[in-house]
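As promised in the previous annual report, we have extended the structural survey to additional targets. Below is the entry for Protein p34.
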Amino acid sequence: MTESMRFALGSIVVGLIVLATKYAAYLYTGSIAFYSDALESIINVASAMAAAGALHLARKPADHNHPYGHTKVEYFAAVLEGVLIVLAAVTILRQAYFSLIEGPEIEFTLLGVVLNGAASIVNCVWAVALMRVGRKHRSPALVADGKHLMTDVYTSVGVIVGVGAAYVTGWMILDPLLAIVVAINILWSGWHLVRESIGGLMDEAAPEEEQELLRALISQHGDGAIEAHDLRTRHSGHVTFVDFHLVVPADMSVRDAHEICDRIEEGIGQKLPGARVTIHVEPENHAKHSGIVVL
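The corresponding structure token record, generated without further manual editing, is:
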């Protein structure tokens, strides 16, 4: 089992523990804000399950129906997570509305606050770990899960402060109002997740810093070639697809040109593990005198 999959499965366990803890905090206090916090944890569990399933499918080897592999399935998991976040926000807004109409009631207990705070600490530690492992293995599903959990941490801290303020001031209306703020923040988080995932599905180019690295690697390892141009990149889950045209002297043998390509592919693979490189070799009369000059 890969490290990514272990963390994905671990997220399900952590999510269930946090959900039980936050729901207990809601039962002790009756706070709608705590209820909204617990509801988001249900979304965390569902998202973790989706991420685990996506990671399992994404690691399947390419086949005749999917010659480029199954890596894009991770983006679908991230989109699903964004949709679930939106549904959670709508449910929270509905509950807050009824609380405002009927009049909020909170029974402030220290145990409820402690339980919610402990759950938030667990979420924070796990979110940092998920984002670290997700970036290490270039997994959009894990990174999205980590970002979502970190958003949950921020809202949980705000909820605890707000519930405490409602108790101290006696303004119980702060509780449903705070739940509305949490819902809006959750919507914002969901929008960002969906937008980033759609970018992956639409084959957006790799970040500019990654493209700069690729240009440097091609120039460094392309000794014997003249230039490279029409560099194109796209991400598909943890895989980066790279293709470009490599101009070589017209009298160069196929064997020598192939050796240059091998060096470039190996150099890129060392810096971007899992990258899939396609190189189109051209004679020097196809040079554009622009793009990447080989050192």
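Helices lie at 3-29, 32-58, 73-102, 110-136, 140-169, 174-201, 208-221, 254-271. The chain is about 70% helix and 10% strand. These points will be discussed at the next consortium meeting with the crystallography subgroup.
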